[in-house]
Specification:
alpha/beta, eight-stranded parallel beta barrel, Pyrv_kinase-like_dom_sf, two-stranded antiparallel sheet, metal-binding, 13 helices
Length: about 270
């Protein structure tokens, strides 16, 4: 599964739901939480159910951000969504505990968001839950929970590194947070590039204009694909000859480089 881009789509907007069919995001997250006013939650659930019956998103991953499990609205979300076969994944905001029960109850993949102080301290319990295969974080909610300054925490490398480290430990996809300034496309690209260097596989996005940039950044470059192809070919040939390490372009290539090359080739095409 490729998650270079996860696009949030308000579940209350039929126009935006229909538009998402045409967009080149790898994953669509229909939002029943922040994007829907309290008095319109039921309307949004009905609208989303109707759209799921009528529309075809092809190979896109379809997710729904439910309301926090601490909220009564989440039970209504789950009652509706458990019957929707097209929904692949439940995005869980403000995750704070083991979520295995949710996977067992719905059979759908679980994608937690780390957005509270408790969630940050319980991150390992959350990510190793049964059914979890990806994770992201919300820096505004997290900063609020920590009593800190949003702008300061926005670029906090400790938090970014902690999340990607735990995600990689349990072999789940780390996806970087949303970038709110839609006018600052250069800043958005820089943040994508930084996230990729840290080990994130993709970016959560809030506007179609961000999709192409994130897709490009989180896709291997032509040079990376060419390097990976040569490494795989040379290493597999050497392994048949009983060699554990080889020299390629005057550089030592061993099993670690081989695994990196294999990972690049997994994402080498659209």
């Amino acid at each position: 599964m490729i998650r270079r881009t996860q696009l949030y789509v308000p579940a209350i907007s039929e126009k935006m739901i229909r538009k998402s069919v045409e967009l080149n995001a790898d994953s669509i997250i229909f939002d029943l939480e922040d994007a829907v006013p309290p008095e319109e939650k039921d309307t949004a659930r009905k609208l989303l159910s109707k759209a799921l019956k009528e529309l075809d998103w092809g190979k896109k991953e379809l997710c729904v951000r439910i309301n926090p499990l601490q909220s009564p609205e989440s039970f209504s979300d789950l009652l509706v969504l458990s019957r929707e076969d097209k929904i692949d994944c439940l995005v869980v905001p403000k995750a704070e505990n083991d979520l295995s029960f949710l996977y067992k109850a719905t059979g759908k993949r679980i994608f937690p968001l780390i957005e509270t102080a408790k969630g940050l301290t319980k991150i390992e319990d959350i990510i190793r839950s049964e059914g979890v295969d990806g994770v992201s974080y919300g820096i505004a909610d997290l900063a609020l929970s920590l009593g800190g300054d949003y702008k300061f925490y926005e670029g906090n490398l400790y938090i970014k590194t902690l999340i990607v480290s735990v995600a990689r430990t349990y072999d789940v996809d780390p996806v970087d947070k949303v970038f709110f300034d839609l006018k600052d496309m250069e800043g958005f690209k820089r943040e994508c590039e930084e996230a990729k260097r840290l080990g994130y596989v993709g970016k959560q996005v809030i506007h179609p204009s961000q999709i192409s940039i994130a897709n490009e950044v989180f896709s291997p470059s032509r040079e990376e694909v060419e390097w990976a192809s040569r490494v795989i070919e040379a290493y597999e040939k050497a392994r048949k000859e009983g060699k554990g390490a080889i020299r390629l372009d005057d550089k030592l290539i061993d099993y670690v480089h081989y695994k990196l090359a294999k990972r690049i080739m997994e994402f080498g095409g659209e």
